[in-house]
Design a protein that fits this description.
Layout lengths: L4 E5 L5 H10 L4 E5 L2 H9 L5 E8 L3 E2 L1 H9 L3 E10 L2 E4 L10 E4 L1 H5 L2 H4 L6 E4 L3 H10 L5 E5 L1 H6 L3 E4 L8 E9 L10 E7 L6 H11 L3 E10 L2 E12 L3 H13 L3 E8 L18
Parallel strand pairs: 1-2, 1-3, 7-8, 7-9
Antiparallel strand pairs: 3-4, 3-11, 5-11, 6-9, 6-10, 12-14, 12-15, 13-14
């Protein structure tokens, strides 16, 4: 069986890398990308078989750009994965918190650690690529005054010490990732779908959409408004819905299409419950 190439945002031991290995297996080959756009570009141009991008975090919320990227690159969502996020402040061995003058990390990790960061007077907070790249910079730098906010796998990978444990604002935090493909991928017994649509800019338009979904017995698990580039007065809506009957879902899509200016099914896949022990010790996913 061919080893699939998986495009990820970030490098080895980053949360995207962990998510890829959890979903596809430890032996998977990952392609490290510097941005979410590059991930999508790799898939669209057949340089990767699949890709993984974060779409929302329990604390920081949705990543709106990624909704736009999925649609603009005409990619398919073929699955989802929830990953528990445990954040720590890491630095070189022997360095103490009182020594730190700068903390670096990915914007999402920093955004999930605001309570801790607000207490660090006189410390510069710098956004940078992914957590793994930040950790590598700290590890290889001659400067012992820089620390990184990252996950448990990072400390081991780059020989860093945990100088403050659990710096995240919420202890039971998670990030949801989409599994992306260029084309359709067979999924047995799908029960979830992601849809993007645009309604008329008039009162009651969105209410009509919600009423149709309710009347068909579908469970709306997410609705996200996304600005439409170059159109300041319009928004598209991204919907995640769960269903027990595929025929009912297909009927719903057909009816929604009649009430919208634009509708596209981004993917039909199998839901992954947030439960099932996802909030247990994160290290079980890192061994």
């Amino acid at each position: 069986m061919r080893n699939h190439l998986i495009a990820i945002q970030g490098s080895v031991a980053s949360f995207h890398d962990i998510a890829a290995k959890k979903h596809f297996g430890e032996e998977v080959t990952t392609i490290e990308c510097g941005s979410f756009k590059e991930v999508c570009d790799k898939i669209a141009h057949n340089k990767a078989d699949y890709g993984i991008i974060a779409i929302e975090n329990k604390i920081a919320g949705s990543i709106l750009l990624n909704y736009q990227l999925i649609e603009s690159y005409d990619l398919k969502i073929i699955g989802e994965i929830y990953l528990p996020i445990e954040l720590q402040l890491l630095a070189k061995p022997g360095v103490k918190l009182s020594h730190i003058t700068e903390i670096i990390s990915h914007p999402m990790a920093l955004g999930q650690s605001q309570s801790f960061l607000s207490l660090q007077e006189g410390v510069t907070i710098t956004e940078y690529k992914d957590t793994a790249t930040c950790a590598q910079l700290v590890s290889e730098s001659a400067n012992n005054k820089t620390a990184v906010i990252a996950g448990p796998a990072i400390a081991s990978k780059y020989n860093l010490d945990v100088i403050v444990d659990q710096v995240g604002d919420v202890k039971q935090n998670y990030t949801r990732f989409y599994i992306l493909s260029k084309g359709e991928d067979y999924v047995s017994d799908p029960n979830k779908a992601s849809i993007t649509l645009q309604t008329d800019n008039k009162p009651g338009a969105l209410s009509t959409i919600l009423q149709i979904i309710h009347s068909k017995g579908l469970n709306l698990t997410k609705i996200q408004s996304v600005p439409i580039p170059n159109n300041t007065n319009a928004y598209s809506f991204h919907l995640d819905v769960e269903f027990n009957d595929r025929i009912k879902f297909d009927e719903t899509v057909k009816q929604l299409a009649e009430e919208t200016l634009h509708l596209k099914v981004l993917g039909i896949y199998k839901t992954t419950p947030i439960a099932n022990g996802i909030m247990n010790n994160v290290t079980k996913y890192l061994n």
